[in-house]
Amino acid sequence: MAEPQGVRQEVRSAVAITPRAKDYGQWYLDVVRTAQLAEHSAVRGCMVIRPHGYSIWERMQRELDDRFKATGHQNAYFPLFIPVSLLAKEEEHAAGFAKECAVVTHHRLKSIDGKVSVDPASELEEPLVIRPTSETIIWEQFKGWIQSYRDLPLLINQWANIVRWEMRTRLFLRTSEFLWQEGHTAHATDGEALEETWRMLGVYAEFARNVMAVPVVRGRKTPGERFAGAVETLCIEGMMQDGKALQMGTSHYLGQNFAKSAGVQFLNAEGKLEYVYATSWGVSTRLVGALIMCHSDDNGLVLPPKLAPLQVVVVPIFKTDAERAQVLEEGSKVASELKAKGLSVKFDDRDGVTPGAKYYEWEAKGVPLRIEVGPKDLEKGSLCLARRFMLEIQGENDAQRRKRSKSFLPRAEALASVQPTLEGMQGELLDRATALRERRSRVIDDIQDYERFFKEEGGGFAWVHWAGGVEGEDELAKRFETTIRCIPMPEDILPAAKGEGKCILTGKPSQQRVLMARAY
User: Fold this and answer.
1) Cα-to-chain-centroid distance, residue 450
2) How many helices (H) and strands (E) in the chain?
3) CATH of the domain at 356
4) CB environment 45-84: b (16+ within 10 A), e (fewer)
């Protein structure tokens, strides 16, 4: 007789998740832990990305890499170590990263009487910085790759790890080591380089919206927020569920700064030597943190179907040996038919785990759609479909929403509905995130309203006129913990925020509003 596997029931998760409304920071960490995405390592400030978390990053990589290659970019790889002398060639760049650099000074250890220590005789002739970013080492190589305008544009991308010695860390959002991609391109004219800078920002914005289901504001950083060594820094900013902004990607126009520091020149079409124009751009595993904070709920991770490592999980339900054989056969067929349609599917036929426990495990991990197969479903020729995410109805409690998330359909209709259901959920997540951003955005014209918005009402995106300069930015940062996230592109400005006005701090004339918020 088989061990009873339970009935179609709902049970509480054994690992409680702190409600978002009670403690958003702890909720975030609880979701990361419960979904088995990442954990702290033995190395201070560094994380271990667990298989489920890494598989999400892999999905992001594939989506982005396809987009990079479609725009003519090729992947390459450059060293992890950068000689200090190379980093120092671009002074502004070196100064900007100096406090975050991890430095290697010796190349071996020694062991005496079982005690291991650094061998002082192994000191390097020149210290090596573990890359905080790769502009300097890449441009040193580009010098040998570029001689003529015929070698341009040079469009290179690298998938790599980065080390920035952070004092305060949070899984995915800010760690001393993280994974990212960094694009580095060289061009014959400033116009071509600027076009590339905006093109790649557009790639990031499209990916955020159509794949991550996160609406973003595109814009330029203020001079004080630019990437060290850049002439212009562009960014995309998303709103998380607590109203804070998250910088989700940046694209930098570097002008000729790095080309001059590395001595990268080319013969132009007129036969004259000229320094090339450069860009760099990147996103990181911070995007996984954005997914969590933008979409997830008090039951765990919520993933847009386009990025879910598993889009469907099939769970069998049975009590007897006879039921077991029939249900497992049907569940396996359902999984195979869905895989044949190109979907990522898991048939969860583990013994000794109740259906309820399986439900909550896959719910916590964010699997968009669950299909339940039981004896009654076999008798009726039907299947039970349970969606991980439903748009909220005002006044509805969690139990009511769970009930509404389930549908019982004839087998053929159920299987035919899976792909449209996933597509619908993808769109609904974007709609929900967009609605949240609209609710928590405000056009503000005076400092009193600004203070109420951030100190009394929880804040969000504030659209304000600004002519306060760096000192004014520092004042607002101290008073309200807010920063200028970007100077938005005209197309991304709220209709009510357009037009000229006066700075909320100084009263000076202002041509355009900026986006201000508290941020991660």
Assistant:
1) 29
2) 15, 27
3) 3.40.50.800
4) bebebeebbbbbbebbeeebeebbeeeebeeeebebebbe
> What is the predicted pLDDT for the residue at 71?
98
CA nearest 464: which of 517, 411, 417, 427?
A: 517
- The residues pairing with 371 across neighbouring beta strands, listed in sequence order, are 314, 385
SS3 42: coil
CATH number for 170: 3.30.930.10
User: Which helix or strand (DSSP H or E) is residue 181 part of?
Assistant: strand 177-187
| Residue owning tokens 């003519």 | 72
At residue 15 the predicted structure's pLDDT band, cuts being 50, 70 and 90, is: low
User: Which of 318, 310, 305 is closest to 349 using CA atoms?
Assistant: 318
Mean pLDDT of 318-334: 95
Domain span holding position 409: 312-421
45 shares a domain with 174 = yes
Residue 94 scores a pLDDT above 90: no
Inside any domain, residue 435? no
Residues 233 and 332 grouped into a single domain: no
Tell me the whole-structure pTM to 2 decimals.
0.94
HEC string for 97-135: HHHHCEEEEECCEEEECCEEEECHHHEEEEEEEECCCCH
Collect all residues with Cβ–Cβ distance below 8 Å to 407 and sequence separation of at least 6. 384, 385, 414
Clarify whether residues 133 and 208 are in a common domain. yes
DSSP letter (8 states) at residue 227:
P
